[in-house]
Amino acid sequence: MDATGDVHEVRIEPEGLIGLLGIPTGASSIVIFAHGSGSGRLSPRNNFVAAELRRAGLATFLLDLLRPEEEADRRNVFDIPLLANRLKRASEWIKARSETAEFTQGYFGAR
């Protein structure tokens, strides 16, 4: 493991949402990246920002709020209740994991 921590792919069920969770040693806070489409968990720019945050000691969770088949319907990109519920679900998921349950949560999103 390097200074940016071990990053691994995780899935939130039953929604089938996929994310990349990275927790550096000693982290006590996590930044949840929230993107509905276009700039998701695999974005080089998002991964660069996440690596820098981990280097600074913050855990990161890069999450796609829409499944690939949902992104095809552009209405979902603007479905604020759907996206807000998915973000809430991600926050609850982080709280339910023993390794991240006590972490302070923050959010990062870009348009």
Alpha-carbon distance between the two ends: 32 Å
Identify low-pLDDT runs: none
The CATH architecture can be given as 3-Layer(aba) Sandwich
Largest sheet: 5 strands, mixed
> Using only CA atoms, what is the Rg?
13 Å
Features:
alpha/beta; five-stranded mixed sheet; 5 strands
Give an account of the 3D structure.
- The chain is α/β, with parallel strands linked by helices and 111 residues long.
- Helix content is 30%, strand content 29%.
- The chain contains three helices and five strands.
Helix and strand topology:
Blueprint: E1 6-12, E2 17-23, E3 29-35, H1 44-55, E4 59-64, H2 68-71, H3 80-96, E5 104-108
Parallel strand pairs: 3-4, 3-5
Antiparallel strand pairs: 1-2, 2-4
Q: Could you provide a short overview of the structure?
A:
With 111 residues, this protein is α/β, with parallel strands linked by helices. Helix content is 30%, strand content 29%. The model has no long low-confidence stretch (mean pLDDT 89).
